[in-house]
Amino acid sequence: MSLWTLLEGGHSMPGRQTAGARLAARIGYWLANRHKQASVHPGCLISPEAKVNPRSGRIEIGEGSLIAAGALIQGNVRIGRNCSVQAYSNIVGYGDPDNREGWITIGNDVRIASHAIMIAANHRFEDAGRTIRSQGVQAAPITIEDDVWIGGRVSITAGVTIGRGSVIGGGAVVTRDIPPYSVAVGVPAKVVRQRGEQAQDHPEEEKQ
Q1: Which element (helix H / strand E) includes 143?
Q2: What is the average pLDDT across 43-49?
Q3: Residue 24 in contact with residue 6, Cβ under 8 Å?
Q4: Of 11, 41, 115, 123, which one is the catalytic site residue?
Q5: What are 207's strand-pairing partners?
Q6: What is the pLDDT of residues 72-130, one digit of tens each?
Q7: 3-state secondary structure at position 35
Q8: β-strand pairing of 155-156 with 117-119
Q9: Dihedral of the alpha carbons of 122, 126, 132, 134, in degrees to the nearest 10
Q10: Does 123 participate in catalysis according to the annotation?
């Protein structure tokens, strides 16, 4: 058991329930905000065991957002207000702060469940005569609009936008844009209905 787990009381998300939890949250905030290119609102709660580092980019995290232990937030990433990033999610942007191609932009009131993955670049591999490692990466932005719920183990690929109010079912692999207020599931993810419609009108959703 780590010191931070002891201080946080074993809770899955950082909090202020006890003096130990409050101390851990202060340390987590300092660790995330100490980087020159990081801007973290003091109203955030960040576990000391989260790995928050802008690398050569910039990180911005808005008021009231929570970042759990084990979450990895690296590179060009902007997270809005009142968001939650659960344990062991990986959110990795690319490029420098002025290059929008590699940014991951997450709106307000977004829920991101455990083990979600967002990587804003893909390896180039067109030249079979060279190692993939030597061909670099092609960055493309990822945008998550306001009020989105991303389920556990969801993978969102570079270049995708998920529209406002959408729900992405657990384990989905999102390779194309998702329209606002959609419910999408599967590999690759497909929209099975719009929010507000009755699930029984879409039996294909129950088979996912």
Answers
A1: strand 142-144
A2: 95
A3: no
A4: 123
A5: none
A6: 999 999 999 999 999 999 999 999 888 889 999 999 999 999 999 999 999 999 999 99
A7: coil
A8: parallel
A9: -100
A10: yes
Q: Which two tokens stand for residue 68?
A: 């759990």
Per-residue b or e along 162-193, where b marks 16 or more CB atoms closer than 10 Å to that residue's CB? bbbbbbbbebbebeeebebbbbbbbeebbbbb
The strand ranges marked E within 56-103 are: 59-61, 66-67, 72-74, 77-79, 84-85, 90-92
For residue 151, give both structure tokens: 């389920």
| Residue 75 exposed, middle or buried by CB count within 10 Å (0-12, 13-18, 19+) | buried
Give the helix ranges, DSSP H, for 9-104. 19-33
The residue type found at 121 is A
Backbone angles phi, psi at 60, to 5 degrees: -130, 130
Element holding 38 (H helix, E strand)? strand 38-40
Evaluate whether 167 touches 159 at the Cβ level (below 8 Å).
no
Q: What angle do CA 181, 81, 83 make, to 5 degrees?
A: 65
C-alpha distances (whole Å) from 164 to each of 115, 153, 185, 187, 194 are: 21, 20, 16, 21, 12
More confident of the two residues 206 and 20: 20
Read off the pTM. 0.90
Both tokens of 123, joined, read: 């390896």
Lookup result for tokens 């670049």: 121
